[in-house]
Design goal:
The chain is α/β, with parallel strands linked by helices. The protein is built from 13 helices and 8 strands. Strand 3, helix 7 and strand 4 form a beta-alpha-beta unit. Helix 5 packs across helix 6. It starts with 13 loop residues before the first helix and ends with a helix. About 3% of the residues have low confidence.
Length: 341
C-alpha cells in the first residue's frame, strides 16, 4: 500500500534531533586524504593544510580552559575557536568541513544552518545551549545571511557556546552573482555576527563555481496517473497530492521533516503547482533538503519543477535557498528517470 506523507505525524525526541546531526550520507566516507586540491588554486591546498592541523588538535580530548588561561590569552593570539570557509559552490568546502568532523573527537555536531535554526526552534535557546555546551566541535554548513532574525538567533547561540569552550567551523553559501565581489560573503558574515566575528579565522577557497552554468533543465513532468501507478509499483514509495503535502508541512515543525521520510524509498508528488506564498515555499525548501540528504528519487507530476518558485521569489532575499532546492529536486527526478518507471 502506498504511503501518504500527509497522513504521517512523526514525534521526534531531542535526543534523536541531536543524534541526527551528522554529515549527510554522500559525505560519510570523505576524509582529508580524499580531497584533491586544484593545483591552479593555491587557496585550496592552504585550506586543506589549515584544517588538517586544526583536526589534529580536535582529535585530542577537550581541555576546559581555566580562568588563568582566559586571562592570559591576548587579543592578538592567532588561534581562534572558529574557522569560516568562504567560496563558491563546488570548491570542496563541504568535503573539508565533513572531513574535519570525521577526524575530530566527540561529542560533536554537523548540520546546515537551517537545521541548526530548526533545532533551536524545537528545543528553545536555553535548552540548546545546555545540550551543546559540552560539545568539542560544531560544524555548520551553508551559513546563511538572508534572514536577520535567524542570523542573530544563531549568533547568540554560538556566542554562548564559544564562551563555554566549544569550537566552531562553518562554510558560506554564496550566490553566484556575488562571487565577483571578492570577499563579499566573508565581510557580510563578519558584520552580521558582530562580536562573534572575532572568534573566526576566515579562509577563502577559490575555484570555479559550476552554478555559473545556470540551473539544470527540469525534465518533463509525468502525467499524474503515471506518477500514481509507478509509486504503487515501487516498494517504500509515498504518494501525495501537492496541496495535501504542503498543507501538512504547515502543521509540522521543520525539525520533523526528516522523520517524516522514515522508511520512504521514493517520494511521489502529483499536481505540483507554482508557489506564490513564501512560507509554503520555504517549507518545501526544507523538505527538498531532507529528501536530498537521503538521496530519495522523486516522481513529479504537474508543472515542471523549474516553475515551482515564482520569478519574484527567484529574485528575492531567499533566492539562494530556492535555487538550491530546484537544483536538488531536479537531480532527484533524474534518479527516478534512471531507475525507470
Amino acid at each position: 500500500m502506498v504511503m501518504r506523507l500527509s497522513e504521517r505525524w512523526p514525534e521526534v525526541s531531542s535526543d534523536r534531533l541531536l543524534s541526527e546531526c551528522v554529515p549527510p550520507p554522500r559525505f560519510t566516507e570523505v576524509r582529508f586524504a580524499t580531497y584533491r586540491p586544484d593545483p591552479n588554486e593555491p587557496s585550496q591546498a592552504e585550506a586543506l593544510a589549515v584544517l588538517t592541523e586544526r583536526a589534529k588538535q580536535l582529535a585530542q580530548p577537550r581541555q576546559t580552559p581555566t580562568l588563568w588561561d582566559r586571562l592570559r590569552r591576548r587579543p592578538q593570539d592567532p588561534e581562534k575557536p572558529g574557522i569560516y570557509l568562504d567560496g563558491g559552490f563546488g570548491v570542496g568546502k563541504t568535503h573539508l568541513l565533513a572531513s574535519l568532523w570525521h577526524e575530530s573527537t566527540g561529542p560533536k555536531m554537523y548540520c546546515t544552518f537551517v537545521e541548526l535554526t530548526n533545532l533551536v526552534g524545537a528545543l528553545g535557546l536555553r535548552a540548546a545551549v545546555d545540550a551543546l555546551s559540552s560539545y568539542r566541535l560544531i560544524c555548520i554548513d551553508e551559513f546563511e545571511l538572508d534572514d536577520p532574525g535567524d542570523t542573530m538567533l544563531i549568533s547568540r547561540l554560538l556566542g554562548q557556546l564559544v564562551a563555554a569552550g566549544v569550537e566552531l567551523a562553518a562554510t558560506s553559501n554564496t550566490l553566484p552573482d556575488k562571487l565577483g565581489e571578492g570577499r563579499f560573503q566573508a565581510i557580510d558574515f563578519l558584520r552580521e555576527i558582530q562580536a562573534l566575528a572575532a572568534n573566526f579565522d576566515v579562509r577563502r577557497i577559490d575555484g570555479p563555481d559550476y552554478r555559473h552554468r545556470g540551473l539544470p533543465v527540469a525534465p518533463e513532468p509525468w502525467p499524474d496517473e503515471r506518477v500514481e501507478r509507478t509509486a504503487a509499483e515501487r516498494p517504500g514509495a509515498s504518494c501525495d497530492h501537492f496541496v495535501d503535502l504542503h498543507r501538512h508541512l504547515a502543521e509540522l515543525h521543520p525539525s520533523k521533516y526528516g522523520a517524516l521520510l522514515d522508511g520512504v524509498e521514493t517520494v511521489a508528488i502529483t499536481d505540483i503547482r507554482p508557489l506564490t506564498d513564501e512560507n509554503v515555499a520555504l517549507r518545501m525548501v526544507v523538505l527538498a533538503d531532507r529528501m536530498y540528504d537521503r538521496n530519495l528519487p522523486l516522481l513529479a507530476g504537474g508543472v515542471p519543477l523549474d516553475q515551482l518558485f515564482s520569478a519574484d521569489m527567484l529574485k528575492g532575499g531567499y533566492r539562494k535557498k530556492y535555487l538550491r532546492a530546484l537544483s536538488r529536486l531536479i537531480a532527484l527526478t533524474r534518479i527516478s528517470t534512471e531507475i525507470g518507471g
